[in-house]
Write a structure and sequence with these properties.
This protein is α+β, with helices and mostly antiparallel strands. It has 2 domains: 119 residues, no CATH class; 32 residues, no CATH class. It has 5 helices and 7 strands, in the order ββαβαβαβαββα. The strands form 2 sheets. The chain has a 5-stranded antiparallel sheet, with helices on both faces. Strand 1 and strand 2 form a beta hairpin. Helix 3 runs antiparallel to helix 4. The longest helix has 18 residues.
């Protein structure tokens, strides 16, 4: 079982991240090159999380498979929420390499909080929303949706 490092980086394009791997002796050199020169015409790469794991080739293939529908073809770039990827990587068994001054538990908690805050920003405002139309080859469609923020507030306070 070969040990190596799996890492995730953000880019200047919001929501576009790079997931990659490198061997144990190459991490700093790899980060230096990517942060200065970019990857696949994407600049402004910034390291966010890295973890040393056993069987890193297989784990990276697993990540590629899990996130395959979000992958930019023929690259290691993905259109994903960085906090989701950090949550997953920080749950792997292994030694956290980056960030150096935070524990895996702190990183996991911060990424979880980040996802909740992002979800709160994207909430649909309170109100009643309706759709009432005829759909060709289907018929009449009538839908009513009521959004009540209070339910979310109660959920957030309980957790």
């Amino acid at each position: 079982m070969k040990r190596g490092i799996i890492y995730v980086m953000t880019s200047v394009v919001p929501g576009l991240i790079k997931i990659g791997k490198t061997d144990l002796n190459n991490f700093e050199k790899r980060m230096w090159g990517l942060e200065r020169h970019g990857y696949a015409n994407v600049a402004g790469l910034k390291r966010e999380f890295a973890i040393e794991v056993d069987d890193y080739d297989e784990k990276e293939r697993l990540l590629d498979e899990i996130f395959s529908k979000s992958r930019v073809p023929n690259t290691e770039l993905f259109a994903l929420d960085i906090d989701l990827v950090i949550q997953l990587l920080s749950s792997f068994e292994g030694q956290q390499i980056y960030p150096e001054l935070e524990t895996k538990e702190e990183v996991f908690k911060k990424s979880t909080t980040g996802r909740i805050e992002k979800q709160d920003i994207n909430l649909i405002p309170d109100g009643v929303y309706t759709l009432d139309r005829n759909v060709k080859d289907f018929g009449k469609v009538k839908v009513t949706l009521e959004v009540i923020e209070k339910i979310l507030d109660e959920f957030n306070h309980e957790s």
